[in-house]
Amino acid sequence: MPVRFLNLSLLKVLRFFFIVLLIGIFGICLFLPDYSRIKQLKAEKEGLLVEQRRLEEEVVRLKEENKRLETDPSYVEKIAREKLGMVKEGDVLIEINQYP
Fold this sequence. Notes:
The chain has 2 helices and no strands. By secondary structure, the protein is an all-alpha fold. It has one domain.
């Protein structure tokens, strides 16, 4: 009799582990796509945070340049000459052709 009792117990334990295994596999199949999506969204969030930091730095730089343009006439002149190609009255403009 003890052998039969042992076999019955072993079958119950094996059945229990089999059921737990099936529930685990079902859970993995159910939540794995969500986990992948969460991982993808975290990576996207990190990229957006980097972009946000870059844009915040650019805003600070542009505010400084704007303040300088409002308060520093020599800077305005420099920008007008370099970026807009303007010349002062009385300056001599010398054009150099790159192509002969």
